[in-house]
Specification:
Blueprint lengths: L4 H4 L43 H9 L2 H10 L2 H12 L3 H9 L2 H10 L7 H22 L8 E5 L7 H6 L3 E6 L2 H16 L13 E4 L9 E6 L8 H14 E9 L4 H10 L16 H10 L2 E10 L4 E9 L1
Parallel strand pairs: 1-2, 1-4, 2-3, 4-5
Antiparallel strand pairs: 5-7, 6-7
Length: about 325
Amino acid sequence: MAFTSSLFCPMQLSPNPILPKLHRRKTPGVPAAIPPLSTATDVSVVGNPFDSTTLAVIGGSSVAALAAVLSLADPERRRQMQAEEVGGGDKEVVKEYFNNDGFQRWRRIYGETDDVNKVQLDIRVGHSKTVENVMKMLTDEGSLKGVTVCDAGCGTGSLSIPLAKEGALVTASDISAAMVAEAEKKAREELLKGKDELSPGLVMPKFEVSDLESLSGKYDTVVCLDVLIHYPQSKADAMIAHLASLAENRLILSFAPKTFYYSLLKRIGELFPGPSKATRAYLHAEADVERALQKVGWRIRKRGLTTTQFYFANLVEAIRA
């Protein structure tokens, strides 16, 4: 499948506080894109965005009918129902999801198989661009041999494995035991390549099942990609502070940006939930993330925005102020 280059061109990193602008190209007959995980269910299960017929039906309905749809699609109501089912809050919902249906879905998205729909393939491209940009941030500073890196929320190892290939000493964790097992499997396959021993200079990543709050130790660099989308800002502040306490020199975060445009798209997406339950998606304003970093003595050195049609992520690199 071909993609227009403007949809997934490499992110422009900038040391100044101005984010690259996202230019929307008007294409007749093409519905607006929905951000990744934009619904309280999972946008990755969508085969195609909703069409003009669907919108026309909604547009022609009465105000009362629209209000009913909004009520049924209330993400907070669904989040509470999910939390009650698993006996906890956002963290328990995330853990349950990524150990079950979510694991199977996101393993395909983060993998290389053709068993994905158009939306999932687009999200795969977007996530891989974020990983590429992180690797560029790190390697631009010099060799990674012997550099300690904490990959918090490692998923299936899409960042941990490239880091290990560069000689970094990686400690990777995820709240999902299923994700950790898959990451370990992929790491052994890609790093050993059928041999009994690793190539000289390489060290197998250390994988563990853990939530962000329980992580400990000290690392040259701490990276946390596409995890904050599962938690509200009130919890994200504490997570950012804890991650910063683990980092000696650098903290890299990615998060779904909270702007009027993305918030509107997210709300529209919530009117069309997918067939399976997933986690609540939270957007974060860059200013809020920056304030959380400043409170613990860190400042943003580089920032940028990675976008595809269905994937939007702010990426920031912070250092000690």
